[in-house]
Queue: 3 jobs
Job 1
Amino acid sequence: MGNVLNDLADGLLDGSVKVVDLTQVLGPDTPIIHLPEEIAVNSPPFSMKEISKYDDNGPAWYWNTITLGEHTGTHFDAPIHWVSGKDYADGGCDTLPAQNLVGPACVIDCSVETAADPDYLLTADGVKEWEAKHGDIKAGSWVLMRTDWLKLVGLENFLNADDTGPHSPGPTDCCINYLIEKDVMGWGVETVGTDAGQAAMFETPFPAHSMMHGANKYGLASLTNLDQLPPTGAIIIVPPLKIENGSGSPLRVLAMTAA
Ligand code: MN
């Protein structure tokens, strides 16, 4: 094991291991998922209020108070986020095992399909086609759906909603079921939530939430820069804030790849 970490250290120092930032900027313009007001209370937008900035309130220091929902911007979904995962003793931000928060990523490129159809759904067969090219998904891997969503629609159209609701890509229930059978660690996307925009209307509503969290597995939403990762071989680092009984949190997601 010593040699593995020495090799990694050498790679980081000589640049043969590259660190890629998979995080969107967090600020007042960060898009927030919008739930129908008749069924749910919505999360507030991110806001920031200055405490001091090298002034009378604090002569040599600058800091702010921030207000935000746990599920804002690039963020982690813990199992207790969903009612199906509420009873897992290790399913909250403060109780989930650290070992689960660093791991290999399988990146499934759905960018061409999404550009042609914003409601594109990745199926179990789509995952199997990816495996036929890139190898079987190993238990404990993170599976990331690349759509280049931010580049495709921009921040102002990130939710891509009209009077028929939001239109953004995601997984089918059979896709999520297959990933659970493969015993993946979690599922990540480049859209505002881990489910497709139209997932409220699915036969199994919100499968990436209800089924993944029901299996004590995790989610990552509003990732970006997945186009900078290879299909396999990257390692991602995804620790949420250690919020007591937290259901998720914004985080900085980093990936290590061979340059
Ligand atoms: Mn979330």
Job 2
Amino acid sequence: MADIPTTPRGNWDSKLGFILAAAGSAVGLGNIWRFPTEAASNGGAAFLLIYLACCFLIGFPVMIAEMSIGRSSKKNPVGAFRSLSTNKFFPLVGIWGVLCGVMILSFYTVIAGWTFSHVFVEIFVYAEMFEVASFLADFENGYVNAVFAILFMACTIGIIRGGVSNGIERATKLMMPMLLIILVIMTVYVLFQPGAGEGIEIYLYPDFSMIDMELILAAMGQAFFSLSLGMGAIITYGSYLGKKENIAEAAGFVTLADVGIAFLAGLLILPTIYMAQAEGVQIFDAEGNFLAGPALIFQLLPELFAQMGGITGLLFGVLFFSLLSIAALTSTISLLEVPVSYVIDEHKIKRKSAALYVGLGILVISLIISFNTALIDTIDFTFSVIGLPLGGLLICIFLGYVWKTENAIEEIKHGYENVKDTFFAKAWTVFVKFVCPLIILIILIQTIYNNYFSS
Ligand code: TRP
């Protein structure tokens, strides 16, 4: 049934459009909110090192896998597994991916709402209307959280209703370079502040004794989250990709752009954390455990803008939170696009209604989270840290042993003609069939063992 084309599927207008949309999906709160917080709570440089290894050794090959599955099948994740093999199990992996996407989007919307509300917080601080500012900045206030989550979901739904090239492509083009520029300026500013040294040292000089299973799992989860892998977002985006484009090159660019922005964000935020600590803000408890919750950067960065002061502080504050909101938006649209494309393809519902109903359904979960922000950590751990690598593992197994790497290489050939005999093709085959699944499997099994069977 899934093979009968019903609704015309969209296409990217240009190669740049696809790369920008995929990079837009990757670059988001994961880079600027999640990565620095994870790095700070897992010993800084040791985490950075393992994270980089996970991105290049696991993330990059899995991204190529997802792109080739998507472009070859021209389907949503569930339909893709169904159309490339007769195996009955793998469509369930697609469904698991859709579920992970739904759950990740539900809390992501709340945090994206904080980003958006801070644009206004900055303005009210400048206007010296401190009561309004602190009312809006109160993360414990479920009503404020809910209002901004609703606004954010409304924007996401609006863009997804616009369709592939019209909505997604246009939204990304300007914002990526702008975010990069402002991030560089802020990082340079922070690095010249007194007290930045300790943060830089912790971020760049690894203490190898910090590396344990918990850190490795966190770094792997972060790599999948940040690169938007493991739940079919890149399968879906790949399904709109033309045959002329070079998949390996696109995946390389997206990985580098994403890792580069995360690295930069760490260089900005870790020193900021240690500067705040030097000023008496309590960040670690007596045992050295990270105290700060998910709201950390939303408390520290406004301090930084206040320190810049006056109109400069206002300008940077408003610009930074606006750009971060747009970066978050290009990520939420990729998260919503997965369940929406599933509903469009498999249940033959029109894009406009599919986007609306699926979006509203997810918003209900976001509203529950708005009033119970403690849920964020649990959902994030279950669906990002465990769920995404598990999805990635199954994608590798599917590609390597069910669909077969030879077929994937045939697909990659479009846009990369002589790929077949390259070192890249050989290395990629080994990684997808052996290295990636094995590493992911070992880390997941160790985690389950540590959590449930060892006392
Ligand atoms: N990668 C995005 C970020 O870093 C979040 C995201 C978008 C995502 N789409 C995804 C995470 C799909 C996992 C899967 O903010």
Job 3
Amino acid sequence: MSIKLGDTAPNFQAVSSLGDINFYDYLGDSWGILFSHPADYTPVCTTELGYTSKLQAEFAERGTKVIALSVDEVEDHQNWIKDINETQDTHVAFPIIADKDKKVSELYDFIHPNASATATVRSLLIIDPAKKVRLIITYPASTGRNFNEILRVLDSLQLTDTHHVATPVNWEYGDDVIIPPAISTEEAREKFPKGVTVIKPYLRYTPQPNT
Ligand code: BEZ
């Protein structure tokens, strides 16, 4: 199944390092991050999971639950987590799905046969509280992802869902934001009391509304 932005993220039951999980029950009303990695006991994955664990407070601040996946056995996950905690100086508290039968990987298209016939690639989805898929990225096995970028996308999604704005290139929380083309400049001046800067009729900025 090929999942696209705006699709409903499919539910599943799975075995995980923290026991059996129903994906929707795990997410509840939170935002969610579901990410796959190629294999346990591999160096890049060790750094990715360790760093994600260190960001737990950041994810919690954004009302977001994290869940990882690879096609290894649950006992491997549990033993590898001890290594991650030791080497990355953290305490992994989120579940890692043991997708030995590849049921979830196939559901979410995490296996790209021309990259690897057996291992999952580095895919990551952001799922909103309505269970809609809002971000999909896929990286090769040899390139660790930038999880600070995932926080930045969460900030952008949560801001643009609440306020009628968009975020420009390399935007960081607190920077000026973009007024979408659907809003006239006259309307924008009423809607955004902090001010409107017109560079071109289609390129207009306003200070971030909620700061
Ligand atoms: C790693 O996580 O280090 C890794 C996994 C598969 C291929 C290359 C690197």
